[in-house]
Amino acid sequence: MSAVVAEHDDHHEHDHGPAKGLLRWVITTNHKDIGTLYLLFALAMFFVGGTMAMIIRAELFEPGMQFVNPQFFNSMTTMHALVMVFGAVMPAFVGLANWMIPMMIGAPDMALPRMNNMSFWLLVAGVLLLASTLFMEGGAPAGGWTLYPPLVLQTGKALPFAIFSVHLLGISSIMGAINIIATIFNMRAPGMTLMKMPMFVWTWLITAFLLIAIMPVFAGAVTMLLTDKFFHTSFFDAAGGGDPVLYQHIFWFFGHPEVYVMILPTFGVASTIIPVFARKPLFGYSSMVYATAAIAFLSFIVWAHHMFTVGMPIAGELYFMYATMLIAIPTGVKVFNWTATMWKGAMTFETPMLFSIAFVVLFTMGGFTGLMMSVAPSDFQYHDTYFIVAHFHYTLVPASVFILMAAGYFWLPKWTGHMYDERIGQLHFWLSVVSVNILFFPQHFLGLAGMPRRIPDYAVQFADWNMISSIGGFIFGASQLLFLYIVIDTIKGGTGEKVTDEVWEDAAKHSLEWTLPSPPPYHTFTTPPTVIPTEHI
Amino acid sequence: MNTKQKNILTAVVLVAVAVIIYVFAVIRAVSQ
């Protein structure tokens, strides 16, 4: 044992910096490096998925077929969703978790650093495999991101590759989740009790449990698709005694909690940013924790509200309707708490705060349309229309994506040591918040008027709102290039202003990362911190 | 038990949970 210690001591001086050259990024086990990799990969995928969205909006700009064939259009809707969910939003939050959780709880690194590296590279492999299906005979999957049989079984050569990529992405997510749970349970600094953790850490802890519970279910569902296609089973084939609706049940048992995987960390970041710029502690910290846990629990028992039109027994429809409505309660608690945090606060409106306030307002709108759809008889009108598209884009774009932008502006100065250009940040915000509403709000009208989703052509009465929506889409897409510019500019030095450790006024009262230098050294909290900030409680 | 051992134990338990859920999902489907 002493020999091991002595050997470790010999190498001690070499342990402090990153490896040299490009190999640093391949072999790194450092939580900050891996966080950066995740965030940059997510940003790249955001633009890949965004390009697909631009193709969709260009085709829908006017009735008739303009640019792409229907098969490719359907591949675009499918791949846009899969890339955005599995390649952009989820990895971006895992990147934030990697960067921030150890620094927020006073840990030196993630609990399982080598597994951390492996989760990232499996993610890259999974997404590249998925993207490669675009170039295969028969094209990429085109049956929607839900991969419903029997439609998805008509996919050409791409099907087994798409399924394997889902397996890889699932394994990557599960490994990431395990790492986060192990880190939070075992690596907290002395005095950092669970109920003193920043809300971002809490929301990720709960999200990680969701991931471990749901990703295996999705993996099981797609494995059954694989055996149905290639090994003569008939899980989902009525001709062989199976049932395609079974797939929908299994998929949505995964799919509904999955949307909370994207929204709970969003809540966590909002709960972290708003108190700093309101210069007040978070209102109702413990109720936030319990509300997050309640939303996570409810997310497991509402899945069939995605399937009201498949012909469930009336008792089933009623149960899923009422259970779904219950989610509005803990979500309402959260919206109330964010508002109450701002109430009589000494607020300032820097870019992260602007994005966070827009999130509170616009996410609430997305939540309310969700409540409309939870009413089973009404859902018969909304089902599979653009109303659904409008709803979930409101909960994902001006909610998750806006908060990811907010997180970028909030922590970039901490990560890089440089201040971003506030004027361009504000310009980015105002362009985004206006165009995102031009993009998605008209889709409510289209859906209520009966325009189905996932179609490349439509009846002429939908022409006007589609054109407006597309114009909003193009402006929104172009505005995001400003964010890309700001990220690159800030990394390269930003405004030239050297930021302080706290960056934002009194931020260190809220969370431990602001007690570290900006940028933080390669290894932080090798000695656990002794003072735990409690302002956020 | 030191932190490293705790980390590995936590990981093993969580992997076991994931595998059980996977097997359970498939068995449920097979028994439909």
TrEMBL record, chain A:
Record membrane topology: Multi-pass membrane protein
GO biological process entries: electron transport coupled proton transport; oxidative phosphorylation; respiratory electron transport chain
Predominant location: membrane
Alphabetized UniProt keyword annotations: Cell membrane, Copper, Electron transport, Heme, Iron, Membrane, Metal-binding, Respiratory chain, Translocase, Transmembrane, Transmembrane helix, Transport
GO CC terms in record: plasma membrane; respiratory chain complex IV
Pathway: Energy metabolism; oxidative phosphorylation
Protein function: Cytochrome c oxidase is the component of the respiratory chain that catalyzes the reduction of oxygen to water. Subunits 1-3 form the functional core of the enzyme complex. CO I is the catalytic subunit of the enzyme. Electrons originating in cytochrome c are transferred via the copper A center of subunit 2 and heme A of subunit 1 to the bimetallic center formed by heme A3 and copper B.
Protein name per Swiss-Prot or TrEMBL: Cytochrome c oxidase subunit 1
Automatic annotation (TrEMBL), chain B:
Keyword terms, alphabetized: Membrane, Transmembrane, Transmembrane helix
Transmembrane domains' residue ranges: 7-30
UniProt name for this protein: Uncharacterized protein
Organism: Methylobacter tundripaludum
